[in-house]
Amino acid sequence: MAKRAKLTKGQLRRVKVNQEKRLAKRQIQQDTEWLDDQLGNLETGRVVSRFGQHADIIDTEENIFRCNIRRTVAGLVTGDFVAWRRAPVNEKGLDGIVEAVEDRASVLCRPDQYDGIKPIAANVEQIFIVSSPQPAFSDQIIDRYLVACEDAGIEPIIVMNKTDLIGADEAEFIAQRLSVYEAMGYPVFHASATTNEGIEALRNAFQGKVSVLVGQSGVGKSSLVQAALPEVSLAIGALSNNSGLGQHTTTVARWYPLLNGGALIDSPGIREFGLWHIDADRVTYCFKDFRPFLGGCKFRDCKHLTDPGCALQAAVAEGKLDAGRLDNYHRIIQSLDQN
Ligand SMILES: Nc1nc2c(ncn2[C@@H]2O[C@H](COP(=O)(O)OP(=O)(O)OP(=O)(O)O)[C@@H](O)[C@H]2O)c(=O)[nH]1
Ligand SMILES: [Mg+2]
Ligand SMILES: [Zn+2]
To answer: Pick the residue with more confidence: 52 or 266?
Structure first.
């Protein structure tokens, strides 16, 4: 059988451009579903979820409206504040149209090979970085998210979920890595969505704030949201043997209001959380435990590897800086060079 040729990058790009053209065309048709003077006055709301050219908008009374997004409104994402107008009647399942998006106070982003920099969630105050023993614990991934949080200026909180599954062989390693984060001043929570360990403490930490849960697929983000919000019902999947991913893997970020103010945003797991939208100097700065030593290296362009007079290497040798953090830093810098 003939082998099917793989698409080149150029071809993929063209496919994407054509898809966008088609989407834009369809959007023009849908934009005119209602005449302008049939639409209500501008109302404010917040994006619960966004699906292509539609978004669910929530008002202060927690009513949800499915809206079209005007072509002129770009890059809408969960957590955005929007101005929208109500349709005279619900038509084709749509309640109105989003006219504009407000400037964001903060945004968590990741780079995407085809779409460029993709926002994940906007206007969040806290980012809960969720880890678990299954899929395997990785401080490398935690460090990547910590850089993204520091870059976005959003407070990170680390959650070790599935404590019920931590094996005796890995308990010491995990505890050691978590203690490094605690020593740096990052809050660390231990939780289990299965036994309910730590759920009350998490609920307190969520209260009154807008938080997003991030982390690899299958670590239990949706399960933790479900445990914290028993009144709502989320799709949660068992880990499939083949992919190691949840069968009900979350595909779009979604906003869940909390009873007494604030909200939780459940986000889809990301296989490779790239940081190549952040330049190397910025990554260095985003390792906040490095800051006391930066500027102390003998050479201004020190790569903090084998360079003589490196202040970071000296700090590691003196036990003032964690060696694992410096290792992960170098792995991240290498991955920036590869892109
Ligand atoms: N034993 C145990 N299993 C858990 C725990 N939390 C979640 N799980 C299970 O882990 C699997 C994945 O959970 P999800 O909540 O879907 O994971 P997720 O992080 O939302 O995954 P994505 O949506 O794919 O990003 C499910 O089978 C859950 O039942 C826990 O604390 N202990
Ligand atoms: Mg999920
Ligand atoms: Zn150095």
So the answer is: 266
CA atoms within 13 A on the CB side of 34: 22
* Domain encompassing residue 89: 35-101
Q: Which among 208, 236, 266 is the end of a domain?
A: 266
Q: What is the mean pLDDT of the chain?
A: 89
The residue among 280, 279, 217, 278 whose CA lies nearest residue 251 is: 217
Give a yes or no: residue 285 inside a domain.
yes
pTM: 0.88
pLDDT-above-70 percentage for the chain:
87
- In this predicted structure, what is the pLDDT of residue 326? 98
State the distance from the centre of ligand 3 to the C-alpha of 319, rounded, in angstroms.
16
- The helix/strand/coil state of 11 is helix
Query: Ligand 3 mean position to 109 CA, how many Å?
Result: 28
Neighbours of 308 (CB within 10 A): 9
Does residue 199's CB lie within 6 angstroms of at least one atom of ligand 1? Answer: no
**Residue 192 CB less than 6 A away from ligand 1:** yes
Helix segments in 129-220, DSSP class H: 139-152, 168-183, 199-206
d(CA 13, CA 332): 27
Residue 119 Cβ inside 6 Å of ligand 1? The answer reads no
Mutual orientation of helices 168-183 and 323-338 as an angle, nearest 10°? 90
Kindly give the distance from the C-alpha atom of residue 189 to the centroid of ligand 1, in angstroms, as a whole number: 16
